[in-house]
Specification:
2 strands, 4 helices, mainly alpha, Rossmann fold, two-stranded parallel ribbon, 52% helix
Length: 98
């Protein structure tokens, strides 16, 4: 008896990932939950997920707390879109021109 394989379209995959991402962001909005969310997300993705703490908190202690929690970068709001794009690109290794 042959097992029927389910083929997921790229649109279905995108929707599924977007729902997961939104749930993760909702949990991460609670500052005390951030370390847990980062660790869980990394565990689900094999441990290699860059993370940026984008917060309204701009004190030195807030930056230290974010870095200790496992984020690679702490960016206080407001942030310029160009700066955010540059930070994301550097974390995923896509700097410079294509």
């Amino acid at each position: 008896m042959k097992r029927k394989e389910q083929i997921e379209t790229s649109e279905e995959k995108r929707d599924r990932l977007w729902k997961y991402f939104n749930k993760t962001l909702a949990a991460a909005n609670k500052q005390e939950a951030s370390p847990v969310v980062v660790k869980a997300f990394r565990a689900a993705r094999g441990g290699k997920v860059p993370a940026i703490a984008l917060t309204a908190y701009a004190r030195t202690e807030d930056r230290v707390r974010a870095l200790v929690a496992g984020f690679q970068v702490h960016l206080p709001k407001p942030i310029e879109p160009v700066e955010l794009v540059a930070v994301v690109a550097s974390l995923v290794g896509r700097t410079g021109t294509a």
